[in-house]
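At this stage, I wrote out one protein, both as residues and as discrete backbone shape codes, and that material follows here.
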Amino acid sequence: MKSDKYLNFAFHAMTHPGLSGIKLNLMKTKKDIVDDWLPRYTGTKLEEFGDFILLTNFTGYLDLFSKWYDVPINGKDKAMPTATHERITIINFGMGSPNSATIMDLLGAIKPKAALFLGKCGGLKKKCRVGDLIVPIAAIRGEGTSDDYFPARVPALPAFNLQKALSTVIHNLDKNYWTGTVYTTNRRVWEYDEQFKKHLRITRAIAIDMESATLFMVGFANEIPTGAVLLVSDQPMVGSGIKTQASDRKVTEKYTEEHLRIGVETMKDLIDRKLIVKHLRFD
């Protein structure tokens, strides 16, 4: 068997002079893996991470954070580049549910005190206008990835105290937001599919994205308090509201700075007030 061959090689590496210089890499536990993989994916050493994490899937957010605080972007050649200012690290983890699960598993290496997702979403209700903010209270697990972590009947919930702190910051900035349930899907192209739209209407979800449910579930699995504030970037239930290259560029130019500012201020508020958002014991 393969394992027997590996053990046989290990024995010879210890006893044969020609192999004595070979260092065997035995990663037996999840901790061994994520401790090695988080720097590999991000280009950032474990000790260089802050303990408050902002998550995004847009390069512009990372660039803006770097510019604001005059800090370098680490891992530009990696899958998930980062930038860190004091105790806050922002990570561009890419798009979609699988990447969401990956980053939350890898963050288990540093056990951050909080992780906040700054994402975009499609508004499913007429009342949700482009540029509005949504602070989700739950997410529907339509993506499938989170099924590898918990049974389907387990709800995807953000950390309540983190969402509460977030809502306070938004209010203090004289902004309003919607709240409700977001539907998370793995389908990127569905706007033409009337049957899928009918399904979305039945769920009564206020918005749709590709990350929130997975982030909440895998964050919970790794004992990381996780929240989200979503920016409505389009209204995909009607043809005239489907995102285009031009419309997305306008949303980015108009709302990115405000969205990122809310995330940063929320983390600063948690740090300054020494708020604990990990309200469950997880055991």
Summary: The first strand starts at residue 52 and ends at 56.
